[in-house]
Each structure stands twice: as structure tokens, then as C-alpha cells.
Inverse folding.
């Protein structure tokens, strides 16, 4: 499954990485950003016609998915949609719960 990114998403990753590095000594966001750039696929993602999420940063993720023709978004977080927005939640690909998970590619 490709990991699709936009410039806006990369900028957000960098901003958050710098905040974490400023708070905790020894944290270098450069390693993470390099891995994302190496394994991600960049797409041009124009902003959505209207804001649909409470957090504008979440709109960037949706805009990227739309621009790339994505059929799904895989996220460990929750998108807080504005009131009245339609959404379909499909958890058929969710992994089974494990008390001590051991991901294969971590």
C-alpha cells in the first residue's frame, strides 16, 4: 500500500518534529523525516473546497487522499469532522486486538 504525502503534510511533520526536539533532548526529527521522504510518494494536493474537519491539519490529509485518488485513509488517530459531515467507517482491515502486539515491519 503506497504512503501518499503532500508538501503540507511533510511541513506539518517537520513542525511537530521540531516541537518534540525542542522539548526532549536527543530527539532528532531528521531521521523520521528522511524515512518518510524515502518511503513516501509525493502528490500535489490542492486545498479542499471547504473545511470539513475541526483540525485544519486533518483537512490536509483528506485533500492528499482525494488528490491521489485514494479509496481509504489508514490512521492511528481520529479525524474530528465538523457537524453534518458524512463519513463511512470501515474497520474490516483492522488487525485483531493483541495485548502485546509485535508488528512485522517495525
Amino acid at each position: 500500500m503506497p504512503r501518499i504525502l503532500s508538501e503540507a503534510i511533510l511541513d506539518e511533520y517537520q513542525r511537530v518534529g521540531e516541537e518534540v526536539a525542542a522539548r526532549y533532548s536527543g530527539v532528532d526529527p531528521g531521521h523520521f523525516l528522511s524515512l518518510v521522504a524515502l518511503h513516501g510518494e509525493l502528490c500535489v494536493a490542492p486545498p479542499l473546497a471547504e473545511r470539513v474537519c475541526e483540525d485544519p491539519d486533518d483537512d490536509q490529509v483528506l485533500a492528499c487522499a482525494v488528490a491521489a485518488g485514494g479509496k481509504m485513509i489508514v490512521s492511528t488517530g481520529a479525524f474530528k469532522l465538523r457537524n453534518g459531515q458524512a463519513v463511512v467507517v470501515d474497520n474490516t482491515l483492522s488487525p485483531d486486538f493483541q495485548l502485546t502486539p509485535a508488528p512485522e515491519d517495525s
Summary: The longest strand covers residues 3-5.
